């Protein structure tokens, strides 16, 4: 049976004074695919190793199904772990590698053979029992590592950048397979990655980390559509961030003056106020049309010139310089009917004020 995990105000200060994890709090639900996402050095591995029991928190507590396990040794936690470098035993066969955890638990030979067989079938490696790791591809080695972790029927599976060494195609296939396996087994899975696309594609929920702290916890759509901080908006996908002073105009009650004549109407939900504010606007939320001479709608459109284009296949990314000199990214689908712009084209940008996301700094 899989478990829930509660991380309650956990900090980790390493010898030498590095505060790797700083007052992290989050609740991971039973059966959930939960990702820790953030740039290198933000404390993902340290957090995972504290859940696994390889590191002890300097303060705070970790609870599994409500029971405090902060000081329970790793081998008594019933957790499986998969590492980026696989950490397979090079001189042992696939079957021996997978059997390792079962032997440690003292199971009889027939049971071990049956469980190893079932685990290898689960990761689609049946028939490769007698190979050694060096005789396998990277993807197959990663599957062995996965089989070794799940064969003990852990309550929690912990994965530290497990797909980082694979090329893109294989990585996408393994993402799909790992997710299917996790759902099939009903496993609680904590997945560490610095790859935002991977986290968005795989997770039920994501914790975005920065400098040892959690910036935001949410579903992939929440994290992408409603980032709460500037860091999250910037780290997840491409985005345009504007910073300015709140103002009102004759036509717009609640707007942001971002300088050089550019005024952005704030979402209707914002209400009026004063002060400095940052907002994010995703490139695909902006419509790009051939420049019109008609006056632009107050607060939700602007004129500009295409500086350069980046053809992505299914979409085109444009960098546009506005008359206000702001540089803006615009993404348009590569639909059959819409024309593609080229550098130097005069364009008009239009957006919906409700698509602006107000950020905490
Ligand atoms: N054993 C250690 N001793 C001292 N500092 C460490 C140790 N492990 C990690 N750190 C430091 O803690 C911070 C977080 O590291 P880590 O958890 O590995 O981040 P991530 O996995 O997000 O890249 C980094 O500044 C790193 O250099
Ligand atoms: Mg790491």
UniProtKB/TrEMBL annotation:
Q: Which residues form the ABC transporter domain?
A: 5-236
Q: Which CDD domains match?
A: ABC_PotA_N
Q: Which GO terms describe its molecular function?
A: ABC-type putrescine transporter activity; ATP binding; ATP hydrolysis activity
List, alphabetically, the Pfam families matched.
ABC_tran, TOBE_2
Q: Which SUPFAM superfamilies match?
A: MOP-like, P-loop containing nucleoside triphosphate hydrolases
Which InterPro entries is this protein grouped with?
AAA+_ATPase, ABC_SmlMolc_Importer, ABC_transporter-like_ATP-bd, ABC_transporter-like_CS, Mo/tungstate-bd_C_term_dom, P-loop_NTPase, PotA-like, PotA_ATP-bd
The role this protein plays is: Involved in beta-(1-->2)glucan export. Transmembrane domains (TMD) form a pore in the inner membrane and the ATP-binding domain (NBD) is responsible for energy generation. Part of the ABC transporter complex PotABCD involved in spermidine/putrescine import. Responsible for energy coupling to the transport system.
Quaternary structure, per UniProt, is: The complex is composed of two ATP-binding proteins (PotA), two transmembrane proteins (PotB and PotC) and a solute-binding protein (PotD).
| UniProt-listed NCBIfam families | potA
Q: Per its record, how is this protein called by name? A: Spermidine/putrescine import ATP-binding protein PotA
Which species does this protein come from?
Bradyrhizobium sacchari
């Amino acid at each position: 049976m899989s478990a829930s995990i509660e991380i309650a105000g956990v900090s980790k200060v390493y010898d030498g004074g590095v505060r790797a994890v700083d007052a992290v709090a989050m609740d991971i639900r039973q059966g959930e695919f939960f990702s820790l996402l953030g740039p290198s050095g933000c404390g993902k591995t340290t957090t995972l190793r504290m859940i696994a029991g390889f590191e002890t928190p300097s303060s705070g507590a970790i609870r599994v199904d409500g029971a405090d396990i902060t000081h329970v040794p790793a081998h008594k936690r019933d957790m499986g772990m998969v590492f980026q470098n696989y950490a397979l035993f090079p001189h042992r066969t696939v079957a021996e590698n997978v059997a390792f955890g079962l032997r440690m638990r003292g199971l009889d030979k027939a049971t071990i053979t049956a469980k190893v067989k079932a685990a290898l079938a689960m990761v689609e490696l049946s028939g490769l029992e007698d190979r050694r790791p060096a005789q396998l591809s990277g993807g197959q080695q990663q599957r062995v590592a996965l089989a070794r972790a799940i064969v003990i029927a852990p309550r929690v599976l912990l994965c530290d950048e497990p797909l980082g060494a694979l090329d893109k195609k294989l990585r996408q296939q393994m993402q799909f397979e790992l997710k299917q396996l996790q759902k099939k087994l009903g496993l609680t899975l904590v997945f560490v990655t610095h790859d935002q696309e991977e986290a968005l594609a795989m997770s039920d929920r994501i914790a975005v980390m920065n400098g040892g702290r959690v910036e935001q916890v949410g579903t992939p759509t929440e994290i992408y559509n409603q980032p709460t901080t500037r860091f999250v908006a910037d780290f997840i996908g491409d985005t345009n961030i504007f910073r300015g002073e709140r103002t009102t105009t004759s036509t717009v009650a609640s707007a942001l003056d971002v300088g050089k004549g550019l005024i952005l109407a704030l979402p209707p939900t914002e209400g009026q106020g004063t002060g400095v504010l940052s907002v994010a606007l995703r490139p695909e939320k902006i419509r790009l049309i051939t420049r019109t001479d008609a006056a632009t709608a107050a607060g939700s459109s602007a004129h500009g010139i295409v500086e350069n284009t980046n053809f992505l296949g299914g979409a085109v990314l444009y960098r546009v310089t506005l008359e206000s000199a702001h540089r803006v990214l615009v993404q348009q689908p590569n639909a059959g009917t819409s024309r593609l712009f080229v550098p130097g084209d005069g364009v008009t940008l239009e957006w919906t004020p409700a698509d602006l996301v107000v950020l905490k700094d």
